[in-house]
Amino acid sequence: MSVKNVLKNIKTTALASAIALTGVAMMSTAGADELDKIKEKGVLRIAMSGAYPPFNFVNDQNEVVGFDPAIGSEIAKRMGLEVEIITTAWDGIIAGLLANKYDAVVGSMSITEERQKVIDFVGPYYTTRRAMFTKPDSGIDSLEKAADKRMGVTLGETHEDWARAKDYSIRTYKGLPELLLELKNGRVDVIVNDGIAAILAIKENGYDFVQVTLPEAESQPISAGIAIRKGNPELAAAMQAALDALMEDGTYLKIAEEWIGADIR
């Protein structure tokens, strides 16, 4: 069996396991939306990787900060709840949600058809695009020239699926900071990531990287949503109402300008 088929089988098995977990979760909450349980506890548990600056990252005081925790905390506040922020590896974050380790993922998760088979989304709450970066002297100025190069992606992100489907030679990492360091140190030739986060992190760290122009078909808008378990329409509605309200009253723009420097809706 080829490596590609092995990887395909692994992903298929992982999806099947996630669907099975979804069934268990839905049976356990049938007829009882989780919103009441969350209100009874008084805490909304939200998860993110903590390795995706400026959207979510750990600062020098060991606090998880950024655009995502600010949005998640504001949603919880408007629902009359405290917030608990949990960091976890991105490649297992959906499994953790289905295993009830937290109530929602507010971590810049792209809304995809595959993910919607096992989880529901609130939002979207911002939009970005796929982007590719390299060193100025790499000679890589198009997608075609990246075909036989070492490509860095974050494990579990949609960009990994995209790169594998195109048979690129990929190396996977835990998050954006590691991706940028690997490119800087020459262990990969290009990296692929959401454009907004990468551009801001490159500027913040003073890296001398350039963006490779991608064809329009490969850089379509990507919508980020808040993931919750299926079978919770009341929770979804309450979170959506809070999100809509903060978007309408200027709070969203204030948060976006603080962490991103622009309105990214």
Automatic annotation (TrEMBL):
One matching Pfam family is SBP_bac_3
Q: Cytoplasm: present as a keyword of the record?
A: no
Signal peptide range = 1-32
What keyword terms does UniProt attach to this protein? Signal
The family this protein is said to belong to? Belongs to the bacterial solute-binding protein 3 family.
Transmembrane intervals = none
- Kindly indicate whether the keyword Signal belongs to this entry: yes
The Solute-binding protein family 3/N-terminal domain sits at 43-263
Q: What is this protein called?
A: Transporter substrate-binding domain-containing protein
